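Open question from group meeting: does this chain pack into something compact, or does most of it stay loose? Before anyone orders reagents, we agreed to write out a predicted structure and look at it together. Recording both the input and the output here so the notebook holds the full record.
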Amino acid sequence: MDILKFFDTYSIRARLFPAIIAAAPAFAALALLISWKSLGLSNLIATLGILVLLFAISDLSRARGRAIEKKLYAEHGGMPSITMFRRNDETIDAGSKDRYRAFLANQLAVNVPSPADEMANQAAADAFYIQCGNWLRQNTRDTKKFSLLFAENITYGFRRNLLGVKALALCLNVIVVSVCTFALWRLSWNTDTSQGSRIIVVLVVAVAHAAYMLLAVNRSAVWDASRAYGRELILSCESFLAQSKSPARKTPTRKSASKN
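Structure tokens returned:
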């Protein structure tokens, strides 16, 4: 069921966590400013509102993240799993890439573009690298066997999706800070210090949250994670090459008893 996919490891860490971080000040305001001493209608509405908000933001983060992804690829000349395979890219040594090209060409039953072919027509060579990337993604879905690749994919998805809702998160910050500032001004007319201290906590959370979103969430961080995932995807060829070189297990044969 689709609802169950929302609770897998990737969805939780790469989609749900960005949604939680984006709406953190709003959640803090709901948690501290609403009384939870007794279960009432307001509590039920707040709980349902949080769940709906999380789902909506996680869906938005994925859509906006993919839009940003396309722009990043266009700015940097293509997807890292393609650009790193090119012969003019030195991220991975040339000897290793030659072995990977030969292996993947054999799996795809196509010819490897020669250096001259790639120099004359980079787009045609990239079409081959696209096929290589697709094959690798389809054959590295075992998250236990390719745990490092899976971890890099989660990191990239988290950063991409969080950047996708950066503007929304900052807008929520402005709203929360404005409401809290107005509430503090109203409280200055009475002696309810406990309510005032809770509002100050929410303001501190909002300021820290805004600082994190402004300083840590940016396109550079997303691109670094994208390159790390692309590099690990290409290097996963080593696992397949190691398997192909491992000697096949031979079934021991029983010697027939000699006749006297």
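Observations to bring back to the group:
The first helix runs from residue 2 to 5.
The chain has a mean pLDDT of 85.
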